[in-house]
Amino acid sequence: MRPIFASGLAPAAPLDRHPVWLKAFAYALAIVISVICLYPYYWMLVSAFRSSQDILASPLRLWPEHISLQVLEDMASIGGTPLWRYALNSVLITTTSTVVGILVTALGAYALVRRPDFWCFKLLRMGFMVTIMYPYMLLVIPVYIVLFKIGLLGTYSGIVLFLALGPIQFFLFEQFFKTIPKSVIEAAIIDGANEAQILFSVVLPLAKPVVATASIITFLLNWAQWLPVLVISKSPDTYTLPVALMNLNGELGVNFQGIMALSVLTTIPVTLFFLIAQKRVMSGMTAGAVKG
Amino acid sequence: MMLAKPSSPPMGIFWLFVLPFALLTAVFGVWPIVLSIQTSFTASATALKTNPEWVGWLNYAAIFADPVFIESLWRTLIYTALAVVSTIGFAMLYALLLNSTFIGKGRTLFKLAIFLPVVTPDIAGYVVWRWLYDQSFGAINMALSALSLPTFGGLANMETATQAVLIAELWHHAGFYVVIFLANLALLDKGQMEAADIDGANAWQKFWHVVFPQLRPALLVNSVYALIQYLKTFTVVAIMTKGGPNDATNFISYYAYQLFDQGRYGEATAMASVLFAGVIVLAASLMRLQKQKV
Amino acid sequence: MAGVELKQVVKSYDGKNTVIQGIDLEIRPGEFVVFVGPSGCGKSTLLRMIAGLESISGGDVIIDGRRVNDEPPRARDIAMVFQDYALYPHKSLYDNMAFGLRLRKTPEDEIKRRVLDAARLLRIDHMLDRKPAALSGGQRQRVAIGRAIVRKPKVFLFDEPLSNLDAQLRGEMRTEIKKLHQRLGATIIYVTHDQVEAMTLADRIAVLSAGNLMQYATPHQIYTQPRATFVAGFTGSPAMNLLPCNVQNGQIVLGGQKETGRNETERIASVGLPPHLQNSTAKSTHEDGRYVFGIRPENIHLAPADDRSALSASVVVAEPLGAETLVTFKVGACEVVARCPANFHERVGTAMPIYFDQQHMHLFDTGTGLAIR
Predict the structure, then answer these.
(1) Could you give the residue range(s) of every CATH 3.40.50.300 domain in chain C?
(2) Which of B215, B224, B214, B213 lies closest to B287 in space, CA to CA?
(3) Which of A292, B171, C47, C66 has the fewest CB within 10 Å, making it most exposed?
(4) CATH code assigned at B151
(5) Does residue A188 sit in the same domain as residue A232?
(6) Which residues 92-121 of chain B have a CB within 8 Å of chain A?
C-alpha cells in the first residue's frame, strides 16, 4: 500500500509510486484553490493602475491597457483629508498600539503566570476572558460612551488604548511564560535576585522570540482595524487607511481606480510584513488553538 | 499588602506589573460591558444622559417582538451553521490534501496562499470581492459568461447574496483553520499510522480509524471557535451588502449596529447582550468539553 | 559553615492538608545529612522550607543560630542545587555561576577567581563560554553545583540532584559529591529517594514517611538497628525479609497463626527467641504475641555456627548474580531471600537447613511497625 498520509513534518519518503495523474490532480486542485485565494490581490493591483473607465469596460483584463497614474492626483485627498494623513495615522496608531499593547500584555501575563493562585489575579484573568468573548464590533458602542465620560473621545490616545488589548498576544505570552521552569525562577531567587531583576535578567532575554511574534501579529491585526477608529474618532483627521477605504467605498459610482489604489495601499504593507515573517505569524496566530 | 493572605508568597512588584493590564481590562473591557448591559435596561432616548430611565426588560421584550430581529436571529444562526460547516469541512479536507504525499514541494507556497487572506485587512479584501461580484462590471460574471456558464446573482439577488457573502468570508477565514489542522496533522501518532500500514489498511481506512479519531478533539475545538467567530459576522456585510438586499444578509451584529446608529441604544445593547450570552454559553460548553476529553 | 535546627516544623496547606507533621532535627556544622523517603513523604517540602521557597506553617527553622522563618532565601545565605539543574538558558556557564555574586555586587576579579576555582574543581573550566544547551546532563549538573559553590553559602541544599542522570553517571557524580564534601567541609542537606545515595553519602540519614520523621541516625545504625519496618525495608538490596510471626514460649514461630487443618503438611518453622529480644517481648503488652519478624538476606547462612539458629527450608528459586546468588527459600509457610555464595547449585525443591544470625534478628510491632528492642 502506498502510504498517502505523510506522518510528521519530515518530508515524505520518496514515494513516486503514485500514479502521475493522481499527483497532477492533487496539484491542480491546490493550484486552483490558491489562484482563487490570490486572484483578488492580483485584480486589486492591476486595477489600481487602470483608469476607472477601463476597469468597468473590461474587468477581466490581466494587464492594464495603459498604466494610468491618474489616481495619484485623485487620491491626494479623500473627503477633505489628504491621503498621506490617513497613511500616517495608520502607521502611528498601529505602531503605538502595538508597542503599548505588547508592553502591557506581557507584564500582565507575566504577573498572572507567576502568582496564579492569588484571587485578585484569578478574577482579573476571568475578567479578561469575559471581555474577549463580547462581540468585538459591538463593544465599540459602550466604549464610545466610556471614552466620552473620561474625555478621550476623538483622541489618538483613546484609539490606541482601545486597540492595545488583544486575546492573541495575551495567550502567546501566557503560554510562553508557563514554559519557563519554576526551578529557574527559584534558582534566581536563591541567587538573590528580586522580582525586577528576575524579569530583566532571566525572563525577558528568553522572551525575545515571543515578543517578536506577538508584535508582528498585533501589528497586522491592528492595522486592519476600522470600526473602533471610525467610532472613536470625532473627525476624519484621525482616520486610518481602512476607514478611509470604508468611506470611499460607500460612495457609489465614484473612482473605482481610487478604491483599488487605496486597497493596495492598505494591503501591501501588512502583506510584506506577513511574507517576511510568515512562519512566525502562522504558528503564533494558531498557537492557542492547536491541541498538542 | 492586606489583600494577600499572610501565608501566600509576597505580591510586591507584581501589583505594578499587572496594573496597566488591569486598568485597560477594566476601562476598555469590563466597564463597557457592564455599561452595555446596564444600557440595555434603559430607555434609548435617555441612555447617554446622566440619569437614564430604567425600563427593566422592556428592550428585550421589544427586540424579541420585533420580527426583523427574530428573522435576523434565525438568519444568523443558519448562516453561522453553514459557514462553520463549510469552513471547517473545507479546512480539514484541504489540510489533508496539503499534508498528503501527493503534494511534495510547494506545500509552503500553498500554505502562504491560503493564509494570506487571513492577515489581509478585511475591508480591503471585501471591497475587491464586492466588485468581483458586481452584476455588470464584476470579473466573476464576466468569466462565467465567457465560459457560457450561468451568471451568478451575487450581491444583488436575495437568494445568492448569502452565498456570495459566505464565499467571501470563507476566503478570509479558511486559511486560519487550514494551518491549525496542518499543525494537528503533523502531531499525529506515527506509531499508529505504521501499525495501520502493517495491518494492511488502505487510505480511507487509515483516515477513518487512525487520523479522524485523533483529529476529533481539534475538530470540536475549532468548530466552536469558528462558531464564535462567525456569529460576529459584521465587516463583510458592512462593506458588501449593508444588510441587504431586503435584509437577506442582515445578521445580528450588523442589525444591532444599525440600531446603534439610529440612536436606539437600549435595543442595540439588548441585542448585543443576547449575543454575548450566547457566546458565553458556547465558550463555557467548550471548556467543559475540553476538560472531559482531557 | 553553619548548623541548621528544625524545631517542631509543620507544613500545612490552607490550614487543612498537613504534609509535615512536626519535625525536630538538628544538623551540625559541616555535617552531610540526607533526607530520604518515598515520593510524597515531604522531604523536598522540608528542604524548600529551609531554603525559603515554601512558607513555614508552624515551628522554627534556625540557621547558624538565627531564626529565619520570615526571611527570604536571599537573606538565609544558602545555595541550592535543583533536580533539573535550573540553569539560566541564555547565559554562558561563566555568567550562570557569576549571576548570584554579581547581584551581591562582588568585585569582578573576586568573581573571576571564585568561578575559575570552582570550575577547575568540577572540571568544567574549559567550557565556560558555552551555553547550557550545548552541554550534557552531567556537565549541566556540575555547573549547577559550581553555581552553589562560588556563593560560599552557610548551607548547601541538594534537591534530588542525580535523579535525572543515567545510572552510570549517577554513580560517578555521587562519588564526586562525596569528594566535594570532604574537600569543602560544607554543611550539606541532601534530598533523595535513592537509598544507595543516602547510605553512601550521609553522615546521618533522616528517614521520612508521610511527613513524619521515622528515624534519624547514621547509615550504620539505620541499617543494623532500624526503628521501624518502614526504615528496615527501605535500606538494603534485596530488602530485609519481613514475615509475620508469633512469639510463644520463647519461640518465634514464623508464619503466624493458622487454624486450618493443613498443619500436618506445612511444617511450622520456628527459632528460639534470641537473648536480646527476650526482655522486650516479656515486657510487651501484646496479648496474642503477634509480631513482624525481620532478618536481612546476608544474615541467612548455609553453614552452622554458635550464634546461629537452624531452620529447615527448601529451595524455591535461585538467581545467580555473578558475585553471589540470591536464593529464595521456603521456610514453613513463608519465603525468605538469602545471599548465598556464587557456587550455589542446589536444585529447586531441595530440602536443606539454613541458619539465621541470632544477633541480627529483628522484631517489629504488627500495628505500628516500630521495632521491639
Answers:
(1) 4-232
(2) B224
(3) A292
(4) 1.10.3720.10
(5) yes
(6) 94, 97-104, 106, 109-121
